[in-house]
Write a structure and sequence with these properties.
With 102 residues, this protein is of the alpha+beta class. It has three helices and three strands; from the N terminus they run βββααα.
């Protein structure tokens, strides 16, 4: 997950609670990749593989999910606006909805 904080880009790996930063997204991601590599190597060298997976706090997962939801909604709106399947927003309201359960 990438965020902007105090004029730097912060990159977080939510599966390992590892973060890094850089001047831009590319720099932050390169730095994060190096930090993840070191995190994994240190766990292996210390025979601490069982504790390798250490997810970030819920606060960061909520942030990630909110950002992802906003992006998905934006993409969906763009898709619908370009879709030739619907001629008007009223047509969308009139479509039948089928609910199935897994």
């Amino acid at each position: 997950m990438l965020t902007k904080e105090d004029n730097v880009v912060v990159a977080r790996c939510l599966d390992f609670t590892v973060s890094s930063h850089g001047e831009d997204a590319t720099d932050a991601l390169k730095s994060l990749a190096e930090a993840i590599k070191e995190y994994i190597l240190t766990s292996i060298e210390g025979s601490n593989i069982d504790n390798l997976y250490n997810p970030a706090h819920n606060k960061y997962w909520r942030m990630f999910n909110e950002l992802e939801s906003r992006q998905l909604y934006k993409n969906f709106k763009q898709f619908l606006s370009k879709s030739k399947l619907l001629k008007s927003p009223k047509e969308l309201e009139q479509l039948a909805v089928e609910v199935t359960y897994a």
